[in-house]
Design goal:
Number of domains: 1
Number of strands: 0
Number of helices: 15
Radius of gyration: 22 Å
Shape: globular
Largest sheet: none
């Protein structure tokens, strides 16, 4: 039909960028309102709840999202019928949700009294929010793999908007207190599921709407299956899906370590001032976190796109898509660093208020680290598309372990600066390891079990 190979990826990323970009701004608004309306200690509790929720859901549920996205795209390109992949993914997701509930009840004391300083509300918001996100992330994986990026963007936008309304209610005086702001985190994933009936009602894209090369991939897949060629994907079983999900689960754990280990360790080691300083550290890391939310549009679109190209044997478009994305993320990271160098402390003070002083050099370190981290995330999606989840997982674990080890080093008087420098160093190590693995895979791009 004349569309370039990357047009599907470009359209998908553009559609998602609108929804997820707006989501990032709304999320900034949520924390800005909370920071201005709550005491420093109460706001610190909100940031710790946010960290606990999103560490948990990203580690537990994003593996199934990635599994569905990759598998649906691959099976669609190869023309493979059946729904066993959906049953396998649902089984894994249900098991992870049950595991979370059991562990949360078992460790209620340390969570409620240790992390949330005795707040039952924050504890139960954590439980409800994490369970609701199980369905949300399953829906995200299905929508991404099926190329329904408009509905995906609508889901995350509705989630952020409904959460923002709770903070707004406190800001304008309709309600008051930390509990109301926290309840937004539980309500958001539930409200966002309104798009699921729309997804079920809509038919899968017709054959004429497939991305270029999918018809070729389907024919190649039939030849592979008949000849026993290694180009054919293994039968999708619980063991196969579980292996991929387990590797990605560890990657997600490492990712959340980069984003949340700093505030959590500050809270644990700084005594009575720990909650307030943790909130400040969280604000600094939002420079890295908010662009990652925007980058989800790229991550979500590029995995099924690269998977389709791999299935059809299109190595040059695969490489070109990765290189263009790497260049764009490097430029974005450099631009943010320049903005932080010019006006970082003023911007952070205006957005979040409070009595803390934001160090210009530290904000630049986080910005540069964010650029490297986005490059690493791009390389990670390319490796997942190639079926290299286990090898990529090893790179993530080494880099995250090094980051935590640096944070635990004694002798740093400025704990926030230690987090900022550690984040930059860890992101550099991660990007380097994944790039070396990616280049090695270019020489021998063979599919393997996840």
């Amino acid at each position: 039909m004349g569309a370039p190979a990357g047009s599907g990826y470009g359209r998908g990323a553009a559609i998602l960028s609108v929804g997820i970009g707006t989501t990032g701004l709304i999320t900034y608004g949520y924390f800005s309102l909370a920071s201005h309306t709550l005491t420093e200690s109460a706001y610190g509790g909100i940031t710790l709840l946010w960290a606990a929720v999103f560490v948990t859901v990203s580690v537990l549920y994003r593996p199934v999202e990635q599994l569905l996205s990759r598998t649906i795209a691959d099976r669609g390109a190869r023309g493979q019928p059946g729904r066993e992949h959906l049953r396998v993914a649902a089984t894994i997701q249900l098991g992870l949700g049950v595991l979370f509930v059991l562990l949360a009840l078992l460790f209620r004391g340390p969570i409620q009294d240790g992390l949330f300083e005795g707040s039952r509300t924050l504890y139960w918001v954590l439980i409800v929010a994490v369970l609701a996100y199980a369905a949300s992330y399953f829906a995200r994986g299905f929508l991404a793999g099926s190329h329904r990026f408009g509905l995906y963007g609508g889901l995350v936008l509705m989630e952020a908007g409904s959460r923002f309304l709770f903070a707004l209610a406190v800001a304008v005086g309709i309600a008051s207190g930390q509990s109301v702001v926290a309840l937004g985190m539980a309500a958001a994933p539930i409200v966002s599921l309104i798009v699921v009936p729309l997804a079920i009602a809509r038919r899968l894209p017709p054959a004429s709407a497939r991305e270029p090369g999918e018809e070729v991939a389907e024919a190649a897949a039939l030849d592979d299956a008949a000849s026993g060629s290694p180009g054919a994907e293994p039968e999708f079983t619980l063991a196969h899906g579980g292996g991929f999900a387990a590797a990605v689960l560890l990657i997600m754990l490492a990712e959340q370590t980069f984003l949340n280990a700093g505030p959590l360790l500050v809270k644990a080691t700084e005594g009575e001032s720990g909650a307030a300083l943790a909130g400040f550290t969280f604000n600094v890391l939002l420079i890295a976190r908010a662009p990652l939310q925007l980058f989800q549009s790229v991550q979500t679109a590029i995995l099924p796109h690269l998977t389709r190209m791999r299935a059809s044997g299109e190595k040059d478009p695969f490489r070109r898509s990765v290189n263009v994305t790497l260049a764009a993320t490097a430029v974005f990271g450099s631009t943010v660093a320049l903005v932080m160098l010019a006006a970082g402390p003023a911007v952070m003070g205006l957005v979040f208020g409070g009595d803390f002083h934001y160090d210009r050099a530290g904000l630049v370190l986080i910005s540069l680290g964010m650029g490297l981290y986005l490059c690493a995330a791009t390389l990670n999606q390319a490796l997942l598309a190639r079926g290299r989840a286990r090898e990529a997982c090893a790179c993530w674990l080494v880099a995250a372990g090094s980051f935590v080890g640096f944070l635990l080093l004694p002798g740093f008087e400025d704990r926030v600066l230690q987090v900022e420098a550690g984040y930059l160093g860890g992101a550099l190590l991660l990007a380097t390891l994944l790039y070396l693995l990616y280049r090695r895979g270019e020489a021998s791009d063979r599919p393997s079990a996840a």
